[in-house]
Amino acid sequence: MDSLDDVDLRLLALLQQDASRTNQDLAAAAHVSPATCLRRVKRLVDEGFIERRVALLSPDRLGGSLTAVVEVTLDRQGAEHLQAFQQRAVADDGVQQCYRVSAGPDFVLIVVVRDMAAYHALVERLFTQDANVRNVKSFFAVERAKFSTAISF
């Protein structure tokens, strides 16, 4: 963060709120010229501060979804076993987020699927067919009180 100044931080905060702003609108909101804004945002992308720009979809408008927080404990925790499970989890479309954690389970997954049938299919793909998965504990969301992708700095 040493290479970020107040203008960079303002731009990052504004882009986290709405990345679809035009360069003109973003520059005005950040109180910089459009040329400065364009140059700064390009540098933030080039240096990896901005990984990507995406659209956040509304699960309710798309017919709903089932969200689960899933703890996964493996039987064998050697580096190759952890890596093998992680690669499979990351490749699955139903896994929205994958974290290797300590202490406790080996992984925590955030799973978002259409319904319980889709969740059962994911369970079969990722957990049941993997002889190295020792324990799975799933917590199903009944209400989404907060959802944010913003990083505070």
From TrEMBL:
Keyword Signal applies: no
Highest rank taxon of the organism: Bacteria
One GO CC term, this protein: cytosol
Keyword Lipid metabolism belongs to the record: no
InterPro entries registered for this protein in UniProt: ArsR-like_HTH, AsnC-type_HTH_dom, Dimeric_a/b-barrel, Tscrpt_reg_AsnC-like, Tscrpt_reg_AsnC/Lrp_C, WH-like_DNA-bd_sf, WH_DNA-bd_sf
A Pfam family annotated for this UniProt entry: AsnC_trans_reg
A GO biological-process term: response to amino acid
PANTHER family: LEUCINE-RESPONSIVE REGULATORY PROTEIN (PTHR30154), TRANSCRIPTIONAL REGULATOR AZLB (PTHR30154:SF34)
Protein name as annotated: Lrp/AsnC family transcriptional regulator
